[in-house]
Design brief:
The protein has 360 residues and is an alpha/beta fold. The protein has two domains: 59 residues, DNA polymerase, domain 1, CATH 1.10.150.530; 286 residues, Alpha-Beta Barrel (TIM Barrel), CATH 3.20.20. Helix content is 34%, strand content 18%. It has a nine-stranded mixed sheet, with helices on one face. It has a two-stranded parallel ribbon with strand order 1-2. Helix 1 packs across helix 2 and helix 6 packs parallel to helix 8. 40% of the residues are buried. It binds S-adenosyl-L-homocysteine and iron/sulfur cluster.
């Protein structure tokens, strides 16, 4: 018999599973509590379940944890995990501490089909969706490491989640949606929708769904202000162009000055960083409560792009800021551990290849 992976189940599904095993429905809530409040990954430690129940659950199911392939801790406190899935594929998860805030950057796919030209993840060959438990498992890994399970904690280290790791979350929407609903659950990890950000390169039809179902914060990877350049940098633009994307953003629910859309804009030297680009950006987002996140390009081996000069980035930021939009320049975190999307995995695979070629 195949054992059920409990982390793929919503609370309602867990209740159904318990009933099917002949257990009382309320047992599901107890199990849920042990898993999501205490971080237990072993039924034997669930002390309010009797011995036979524990044995039965062990026989029929398991509590998923991803395998840790590698951990890198940066001097600035950023931690990056390379996690190995059961099929041996590798994904990355990053924890970024910033004062009282602690953000987990979560992957949604192995690789990405969208092939943005400046993104290392887009160059990786193998692509598949992560399951709900593989998405939640990344959060478990971080909370285990930080010993930050909610039960009895007043100041939790993990406060925010961003879907900004490897992959396009809106192309794996069903699994991402289920995972986020589970982590928002008030009798579990209880991470509020206000502290969760969905980042998308612009899968327009799913933006509306995301607003309706999850109502989390929205970040759009814009990176270019005219269709010609965006078609090149973010190829999904050929399917959903800038004007379609802006229309979808205007309709996103409950936007206000305290709840803005974040526009991510990677600064590529002499490609998208001119004064004219900044002025055009301001006119594009007019009327939308917005914040612009300028990201200095993080170079990776083999890329043809370079990072804009800091003068250019400042000039760009000043223009957008003067128009009334907060425009933080993202400081590069975890520089010493290749913390940009997809980089640690690429490096590990290259090392594996060179090890293999030295064997043959
Ligand atoms: N697929 C989603 C989420 C993952 S990428 C998206 O594209 O939004 C998260 C962010 O990192 C995106 O804004 C992406 O454009 C940016 N990014 C990717 N590679 C980068 C690099 N080498 N340097 C800086 N930012 C990068
Ligand atoms: Fe995929 Fe996002 Fe990278 Fe583009 S930037 S290739 S959408 S992960």
């Amino acid at each position: 018999m195949q054992r059920h992976n409990i982390i793929n189940l919503s609370l309602i599904e867990l209740e159904k599973f318990c009933l099917e095993l002949g257990l009382k429905c309320f047992k599901a809530k107890q199990i849920w509590n042990w898993i999501y409040c205490f971080g237990k990954n072993n039924f034997q430690e669930m002390t309010n379940l009797d011995k036979n129940t524990r044995k039965l659950l062990d026989h029929c199911s398991f509590i998923y944890r991803p395998k840790i392939n590698n951990v890198h801790i940066s001097k600035d406190g950023t931690i990056k995990w390379l996690l190995e899935m059961d099929d041996k594929s590798l994904i990355e998860t990053v924890f970024i501490p910033q004062g009282k805030r602690g953000t987990i950057c979560i992957s949604s796919q192995v690789g990405c089909t969208l092939n943005c030209t400046f993104c290392n993840t887009g160059t990786q060959k193998l692509v598949r969706n992560l399951t709900t438990s593989e998405i939640i498992g990344q959060i478990f890994t971080v909370i285990d490491h930080l010993n930050d399970w909610p039960m009895g904690k007043t100041n939790r280290k993990v406060t925010n989640l961003v879907m900004m790791g490897m992959g396009e979350p809106l192309l794996n929407y069903q699994n991402v949606k289920k995972a986020l609903k589970i982590v928002m659950s008030s009798n579990g990890l209880c991470i509020s929708k206000r502290r969760i950000t969905m980042s998308t390169s612009g899968v327009v039809p799913m933006i509306e769904e995301c607003g309706k179902d999850l109502d989390v914060n929205l970040a759009i990877s814009l990176h270019a202000v005219d269709d010609k350049l965006r078609d090149e940098l973010v190829p999904i633009n050929k399917k959903y162009n800038i004007s379609t994307l802006i229309q979808a953003c205007k309709k996103y629910p409950s936007l206000s000055n305290s709840r803005r859309i974040t526009w991510e804009y990677v600064m590529l030297k002499d490609v998208n960083d001119s004064k004219e680009d900044a002025i055009k950006l301001v006119s594009l987002i007019k009327g939308i409560p917005s914040k612009i996140n300028l990201i200095p390009f993080n170079p990776w081996p083999g890329t043809l792009y370079e990072t804009s000069t800091s003068e250019k980035i400042k000039l760009f930021s000043n223009i957008v800021m003067k128009a009334g939009y907060p425009t933080p320049i993202r400081t590069t975190r975890g520089d010493d551990i290749l913390a940009a999307c997809g980089q640690l995995k690429s490096k590990t695979e290259k090392r594996k290849k060179s090890l293999l070629s030295s064997v043959h």
